[in-house]
Design a protein that fits this description.
Distance between the termini: 13 Å
Radius of gyration: 17 Å
Structural class: alpha+beta
CATH architecture: Roll
Order of helices and strands: EHHHHEEEEE
Largest sheet: 6 strands, antiparallel
Number of helices: 4
Oligomer: single chain
CATH class: Alpha Beta
Strand content: 25-35%
Helix content: 10-25%
Length: about 150
């Protein structure tokens, strides 16, 4: 199954320690597209000439581009379609450059019965370097909320 094929989990299916990882190569077109969508045209992301003079020595991807990949995992794989994003904390640890392969992982850290809430630990790595970490809180449907639906649909 490819990453783009969704896997849905109901609250009852989740266990602490469940984990999903998404690998994404950062393309120049991703950075340009994210600038267009977000309106963030900071030259550190778009101008090699400008970025070469910064402490990074070259262009870097938007931090929220990297963070948006967490949303991809939450919305498509763990917990998957039907999950509602409630909150997210982010700590940016290192730059992400065009051409880097980002490994974004989410892991179920806590199940909260009241409101079918799930706390997930989130990390992004480039090779052995943690580039981003944080926590997400999502609300996940229960089977009783979606009669006739099957997990994995």
């Amino acid at each position: 199954m490819s990453f783009h094929e969704a896997t849905s989990h109901f609250y009852e299916d989740l266990k602490v320690g469940m984990r999903e990882t998404y690998l994404k190569t950062v393309l120049d077109s991703d950075v340009i597209g994210f600038a267009q969508i977000s309106g963030d045209h900071n030259p550190i992301h778009l101008s090699e000439h400008f970025a070469a003079k910064t402490r990074f020595g070259g262009r870097i991807a938007h931090g929220l581009y990297t963070a948006s990949l967490i949303s991809a995992v939450l919305g498509m794989r763990l917990p998957g379609p039907g999950a509602v994003y409630l909150s997210q904390t982010l700590k940016f640890r290192a730059p992400v450059r065009i051409g880097d392969v980002i490994a974004v992982s989410v892991e179920v850290a806590e199940l909260i019965e009241k409101g079918s809430r799930v706390r997930l630990a989130c990390e992004a790595h480039v090779d052995a370097t943690i580039v981003l970490e944080g926590e997400a809180m999502v609300m996940v449907p229960r089977r009783a909320d979606m009669p006739g639906a099957l997990a994995g649909d």
